[in-house]
Amino acid sequence: MKKIYAPFCRYLVAVVFIFSGFVKCVDPTGTAIKMEEYFNAFGMDFMVPFSMFLSICMCGVELLVGLMILCNLRLNLGAWGALALMVFYTPLTLWLALTDKVTDCGCFGDAITLSNWQTFIKNVILDVFVIYLFIVRKKFKKAYKPKVQTAGVLTFAVLVLAFEFYNLAFLPLIDFMPYKTGNNIRAGMMIPENAPQPKFKNIFYYEKDGKIRKFTVDNLPDSTWKFVDRKDRTIRKGFVAPIHDFVITTTDNADVTNSILEDPGYTYLLIIPGFEKANRKSFEKVNRIAESAISKGHRFYAVTSSLPEEYELFKEQVRASYPIYMMDETTLKTMIRSNPGLILIKGGAIIGKWHFRQFGKVPDVPVQ
Length: 368
Hints:
This protein is α/β, with parallel strands linked by helices. It has helices spanning 2-25, 28-41, 51-71, 75-99, 116-135, 146-169, 185-189, 257-261, 283-295, 311-318, 329-335; strands spanning 199-208, 211-216, 226-236, 266-272, 299-304, 324-326, 341-346, 349-355. The radius of gyration is 25 Å and the shape is flat. It starts with a helix and ends in a 13-residue tail after the last strand. The model has no long low-confidence stretch (mean pLDDT 89).
């Protein structure tokens, strides 16, 4: 039985770490954004500038550990790495499950979303296999000489880093976002008729004679009690549409979302999460794309989260002749991992997406 269980543990741990690391490495920016949530929840705002660096390190180490265990390369070191990661992850996910400070832990990136309790239970189960693998780690036969193993680990490390930097330099190789090419934004915003509704428990706090007691809506006290506070606790989460925060407004707060999504023609959306961090050199190509699109009867809009008072200065600096609208910054970062980035839609459907480094490859679309 031990001869079967030990290899099974090894392969299971390897597959989980490889999958978890891969879906994070394919989108290091998404993991960095999640880290910022963690730092804010812990009151560690000073760590936010290091989010991207830590994301690259953590994602890379997780994938590398999985590859080392799978290929039996420096298995002792790989087992130590897996154990160290689980010693960190398990208490963290328990804290999240108890406090719900961050609603999605991001353990599988955006590929699979688990609740905090599901994530913690998953980690506890995985801990059993990781601990057993750690105990028997020296009983596995070494398939390669030490120098070959070291060379293999270093090769994997270089490949993992190259993979991460490719996904940072361009768009993620696999897009797990609801705004991936081929999806329809309007369809992603729809809520089914029989969708589960959220359920809440209302707790009321009343005071009398210096004592505060809790009451529910079914047993509220009489008028001799003084109301102090009310807290709502979520018992069951309702259905949340994959796209639930897509709202585009003008500078005077007019909603233009429907007019853009219902347009049957081609519409270019230039996504600029923030003017201050946008790549300025790419706007020469942006302006050429915009002029060509508008001359053919297509629509071209910039969408940003920056303040309206920054618009005129920015338009002058980049020589923008197209309208600039407003949108939530988180939504813009979810739509495309580039600043600026370009999205082409038609009737609400996403036809294409381009990183600013790919603006020279944006194809022409037919005359309207």
